[in-house]
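Anyone opening a protein record will find just a pair of labelled lines. With that in mind, the following record should read easily:
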Amino acid sequence: MKLLVIQEQHFIKMPNGEVWVDQQSDRKFWERYLNVFDEIVVCGRFKKSKTQDTSGLVRSDRERVSFVELTNFRGVAGLAKKFVSIVTTIRKAIDICDCVIFRAPSPISLVSYPIVRLSGKPFACEIMNNPATHFSKEAMQHFYQPAITWFMVAQTKSLCRHANGVSYVTEHVLQEMYPCKSRMKGESEKYFEASYSTIRLDEKCYKFDEWSEKRPDTVVCIHTGKMEDNRKGQDIFIKTIALLSNKGYDIKGILVGDGELRPQFEELGRSLGIADKLEFVGWKAGFDAVQAELCKAHIAIFPSIGEGLPRSTIEAMASGLLCFGSKVDGLCELLDGKLLANENNETCFSNNISIYLDDWKLADKERKKLFERSKQYHHSILDKRRNEFYTKLLRCAKRKGTK
């Protein structure tokens, strides 16, 4: 059986035909689907590289995986401009597959959704984030933001109500906001539900260094995330470092990531007089490269405007860091107490972090709890859930094929 995977991803096609990517969707990522399906077809945005330069990238193409190439548009304007071409390409991809999985919500998945419904083929969706916060006015600066948010929320609710299967990255937060048919009517052979993170952690991913009872001379904080917009709250991270420094703590900040707003964030550090306390290390491809940076730090700060269940936070927990986050979406399932900022601003974050800087034994105790909590996301646990979910979709496709 052949599965079509529709996702919001920018792939890079090399002159020799190889497919590379800057995050997540590497060769190993596709194994979760190939464990159940004979073959998968991946639908995503593509740009062609003029050189064979693969620095900062990971290989994505492999056996039993083929790609359907959408134009490499960006933003709502780009989507509207290429709409006819995108719809035509998606229709052709659906025709050659037995069933579909959306990695949603995203503009591509929600444009594809009505086409898939009309095809009559079984489909499932993996809900990755909360569109109400992901496309909020705080997260995106766009004249049509209110309309975009309304549409994304409405379409996500509809997708969940009509999909054969829905999996959520959270245990309960997104389920309550975007209920699926099996949740409302009860599970059956045709309608089903699951929950699992997209993360893949095996034994070698877990690292826990012992801390001294005394706080180190310099405490290192870290933030990871793209810098294409401010959804990940890099500005709050930088302001938090500044406040902690002004309080007299010897503090340093590492920012992992890159994007259009990086110069703006660098300028913010200079304007606050802490440029020498910030290190912008750029984009890191693959978890090993990211973890190498995480292991330089003691504290991870995630002042996100919106999340599903952030992989970056789980990765930091699995690396033995003390983590702080905004009180939003799936972060509330990972962190609790003073590790969550009641208000997403630098004052609240710096006040909460100060508690643990002043009591390093407490900091060590809390990060040990987080490390143990991260083991709930070991791949052996999540793979079992994924396999069960994909197998139910496979059975739907087989029943459809015998009619």
